[in-house]
Fold:
Amino acid sequence: MGNAGIQYTNALTEGPDGLEATFTVNVLANHLFVRLLQDRFAAPARIVITVSDTHFGDFKHNMGMVPGPAWKSPDALARTGAFPEPDTTSAGRTAYSTSKLAAIYLVHEYARRLPAGIDAVAYNPGFVPGTGLTRNAGPVSRFAMRRILPVMALTPLATSRDAAGRYLADVVLGTTRAPTGSYVDRGRTARSSEESYDERREGELWEAAERFTAA
Ligand SMILES: NC(=O)c1ccc[n+]([C@@H]2O[C@H](COP(=O)([O-])OP(=O)(O)OC[C@H]3O[C@@H](n4cnc5c(N)ncnc54)[C@H](OP(=O)(O)O)[C@@H]3O)[C@@H](O)[C@H]2O)c1
Structure:
């Protein structure tokens, strides 16, 4: 289960290897885990990577809170300053949605490359207010995420933390049926964005992720 994820308020933060931190945590760390552990999985097994419907980039999926992904070559995405005005929250959130698109690309690549019976699935919890995801945001955004937006979980627009945890457990345990390579939107498989099916980008990203995570 690759659930760790982070969102920054700029696209300039470096991770420990000097690569951009959103890409490092949301993409490369999961890739490293998959590659380090892949020989230890016994079929049938399922790898789940938490992604986000912000990868769609439209209002229906992000309610205007997160800009859509802005794909570039993986070598550019892995570096700080990949997006315009990189010191802004908007650039940090673009890095976030782009990293989640990247994670979906890698799930498609895992589905092609992992041995039969070792499945890979992308899981989208929907908008889950009240988590620590925006811990790097300013005090107003943090207050809204902690105290105001959780009310949205009472509407269909958002998922409560409890519900997100249950959906996550169901997909990890296989209670939610999903073929390898699929996208699970909360409790059921769905199609991810049109942009997220791109074998050329998937192959390029795999090659770059292998290079960046090589010992
Ligand atoms: N909240 C939403 O609306 C939403 C929507 C769609 C998808 N998601 C995704 O859901 C997943 C969980 O996020 P959340 O909303 O539950 O936020 P969260 O409460 O901040 O949880 C994020 C988790 O990632 C870990 N993490 C972050 N940076 C790390 C690092 N550098 N090294 C190791 N662990 C790190 C955190 O560990 P520590 O607490 O120990 O730092 C924490 O356990 C993420 O992948 C996120 O992108 C969230």
Q: What stands out?
A: The mean pLDDT is 94. The first strand starts at residue 45 and ends at 50. The radius of gyration is 16 Å. Helices lie at 21-37, 59-62, 74-77, 89-113, 139-148, 161-173, 199-213.
